[in-house]
Amino acid sequence: MDKKMKYTVFIVFATLVSCNQIKQQFSDGESEENNSVEKISETPMEPLETAFEQEHKVKEYLIADFNTDGKKDTLFLSANAEIDDQRRIVWNDAQSWKVYININGEAKNIYAEDIQLGKLELYYDRENNLIYLVENAPYQKKKFKVAPKSNFEVTEIDKAPEMIKFEALTLD
Predict the structure, then answer these.
(1) Tens digit of pLDDT for each residue in 35-47?
(2) CA-to-CA distance for 102 and 107, rounded, in angstroms?
(3) What is the 3-state secondary structure (H, E, C) of the chain?
(4) What is the pLDDT of residues 14-43, one digit of tens each?
(5) Which pLDDT does position 8 carry in this prediction?
(6) Is residue 38 within 8 Å of 58, Cβ to Cβ?
(7) Could you tell me the superkingdom of the organism this chain comes from (predicted)?
(8) Cα–Cα distance list, 79 to 17, 31, 45 (Å)
């Protein structure tokens, strides 16, 4: 192989290696666009296979002993949205939102509503063991309090407490 050919092969090889490194960077979620990958959590529930879990592809969860039985429970916030090839959430004008809890392998539905042009926010007050749901949309501004100690009773409230000190679950 002459010197020009070796140089050409070297340039092609270096270009391929560089392209492969760029591809890895983007697929590992290191780009600015892919920071949302951290928000899309895999659910740890194997025994629960229900229809609403399959249609709601976007989920976040929080683990705590909500019913104070000494065992960890998993609270889910989910939305019926699509995820594109780059693992970004693709929102529609209206989304179906659900909040449900996994207690000992069984699901209890807490909230299920469609929200137009907005989202649902979930806050957990660990100190008082209370869950707050806030509809954040132009025409839907309801607030709810969920009491795990009262069999997860959901009550609509006029005003929610200041949420700064609470743990938050959102899907962005």
Answers:
(1) 322 222 333 333 3
(2) 5
(3) CCHHHHHHHHHHHHHHHHHHHHHHHHHCCCCCHHHHHHHCCCCCCCCCCCHHHHHCCEEEEEEECCCCCCCCEEEEEEECCEECCCCCEECCCEEEEEEEEEECCEEEEEEEEEEECCEEEEEEECCCCEEEEEEEECCECCEEEEEHHHCCEEEEECCCCCCCCCEEECCC
(4) 555 454 444 444 444 433 333 322 222 333
(5) 64
(6) no
(7) Bacteria
(8) 39, 24, 17
